[in-house]
Every structure is written in C-alpha cells, then in structure tokens.
Hints:
5-stranded mixed β-sheet, Udp-n-acetylmuramoylalanyl-d-glutamate--2,6- Diaminopimelate Ligase, Chain: A, domain 1, WH-like_DNA-bd_sf, 6-stranded antiparallel β-sheet
Amino acid sequence: MATKHEQILMHIETLKVGNKISVRQIAKDLNVSEGTAYRAIKEAENQGLVSTIERVGTIRIEQKKKENFEHLTFAEIIGIVDGQVLGGREGLYKTLHKFVIGAMKTDAMMRYLEKDSLLIIGNRVEAHRLALEEGAAVLITGGFDTDDDIKRLADELKLPIISTSYDTFTVAAMINRAIYDQLIKKEIVLVGDIYTAYEKTHYLNRTDPLQKWYHLKDQTTHSRYPVVDDQMRVVGIVTSKDVIGKSDGLTVDKIMTKNPLTVVKETSLAYAAHMMVWEGIEIVPVVDNNQRLIGLISRQDVLKALQNVNRQPQVGETIDDIVTSELSVEKDGTQYVYSSKVSPQMTNALGTLSNGVFVSFITEVSSRMMTNMKKGDLVVETISVYFIKPVQIENMLTIHPKILEIGRKSVKIDIELYHEKDIVGKAILIGQLIDRY
Length: 437
C-alpha cells in the first residue's frame, strides 16, 4: 500500500498541467496534515512536476525529458529574470522554444515570432498585442507595465506577459546563461540513466532462508544481493562474507548487513563510481525516496558508462572542458610533460590563475598520465597543494607529474607546475585506479 507521501505525488501527477496547487487544498482533498502535503509538494518540485513562483504560487508543469533540457518553461523564466506576472498566468507551464529581441520595427519583428516563442521588448504596447495574437508570450523589460486590455488578452489566450526591472541586453544574457547551464546538466550521466530495474534483477526477502542466497549465487555468479521487507524497502544486503560459517536454515534477516549503501536515480554516475571503488562494492541498490527498491547498478555498468561519457563531446563547455582542450603533452624520456596557456576563462578577479583551475590541471594531468600508461581510470582521493604562486593571464604553464608510488589499485603522484623556469605550484595527488573492462 502506498504511503501518504506517495499518494500525494500520484495525485499531483494526475492533475492537469497548468493547475494551481496549494498545501491547504492538497491536505484537505487527501485528508493529510499540511506538513505532509508541504513535504510532498517540495518533492514534486524536485522531480520537475510543479514549479513554485513568487507572487504566483505553485503550478503543475510538464515534466521535462532529458533530451529537452535546453528548453525553459515560462515559469522558469520568471525565476531567472526575477519577473512579475502581469497576465496569462494559466500559460506559465508552457515551454518556450526560442526568444526574440524586439529591437526592430514591428512588421520586421513579426517575421520572427511564432507559437510558444517569447518576445523580449520594452514598453511598446502595440507590439505586445501583436505578439500575443501570434501565439507568443511577452517579457517587458525596464520595469514597465502594459495596458489592461493587453493583460485581459493574455488571460484569454493563456499566454504569459511578464515584467522585469532588468534591461533587454541583461535579460537576454541571463536567459542564454540558463539555457547553457541546462545543456551542461543534460550531459551529466545519472544513475537513473543506466540502472537495471528490479524486475530484471535478483533480490532477497528478509524472511527467505539462507539457502536461497546459495541458489541465486549458482544461478547468477554474483555474491551480493539486496534484502527487502514486505513493502519492498531495502533493509539490508547479503554478501559472501555474511554467509561464511552460517547455517543454511537461518533466515536472511539474521545474517544480513543492515543499513547498506544505496543510491537514488538522481545520484551522479561519478559519485556512484567513487563510492563503489572506495567501499569495494560490486553492486549497489537503487531506491526511491522511501527507500523502496527500484533497481540495481553494478560496478561494471558504471565503469562502462563513464568510459562512454569520456568519448562524448559536451554540449555545454565547463571549466574542466576548457582545461582539457588547452592541454598538450610531450614525452621527455620516460616522463610526460604537459603544457597549457592561461586563458581569460581560467583566471580569478585579479587576472591570475584561479585556485580551482589549478586543481583541475592537477586532476586532468594525473588522469591523462594514468591513461597514457594504460593503468586504468583514476579516482581522486586527496589533493594536497603545498605551494602556489600567482600565474598571470596569457602565461604558458608546463606541468611535470612524477609517480612517487604506484600499485595495482592505488597511486601517489607529485605534480610541479612551471612558468618558464620558475616553479609556480606543487601538489601531491593520491588516488585509486580502476581497471578498464
């Protein structure tokens, strides 16, 4: 039977897109406390089912698919530009597909407008009307208002008309940045992208005899299985270590390891990989927000996915992408030497290499060296920076990594950074190595 929290989420999913949602009304309709209703609505917001807008309230929106992350809803636009809704609130859930800056004559502007686009413009009332009639929403810059009949038209057509105090150029830059950030998020691989649903996996019930573990092991060759209760909540895990010396007649709950590590679908693949490597775990249960089992991820699945990610170009460029693209490598005898120019994006407010980019150089160089040496993928444990000197913009860096210790599963690397012949940074990186499958 579903919990009250789950019942509320299911109820929200059944609501029509555009419906307004309130804590009080949900509590009344489903006979739950306002606290329970509030927590469920917040979870629905995290899942992208609703959006809460200041001075408007919470509305049901279309849940975004990952491939459509570059599109924003009008509700999100309000949050980005700190806007105020003047009319057409019922259309806030809609997704905009492009925006048009109205810095041209009206007839020229109309050629660019289409259904579900957004016109960014000042206090040109006639342009507001024409945009709405073309099926486009309107964002009025400079803090201006519009006529009451325009607001009524927006309500009638269910197309938002929004006002913001920012100027047109700033608004366009803010929306572009938001779309860019969405593109970066789109490329981040999550557990939910690779996990195997529980229907296709094996698990144990807490009342099962230990003999079932042996049966599953013979059937699958795995030795680690999650344990669930009668509500499908993960309550433990059984491994080969747990069964050593135990009688086959014991029930699983008597020998299982309680409170196992779990992940949710929203966990990043990189975090899951790090956790599995450091804990020496081969399989991790994937759970929902109520700890109910929804699937499993294996270490091999994670590593394969990470290797595929490394081969995919990122649509939205991050600082790490900039560092990676700027690095070149040469082999000096048995040593690898890396070099890069300090570009404007790598600097802090003082125009010198930022500490964060310094650490990115250390991580990237160490990972590349392990790959070049065919030692596997590097998972960083600690980085100790014990000397750093300001490096100016446009200066050329050379980076000299040197292995201090290396084993089958771990490595310690000393990294020195030079500008010309002067040393400008020193660090030690300790990490674990994971084999490539």
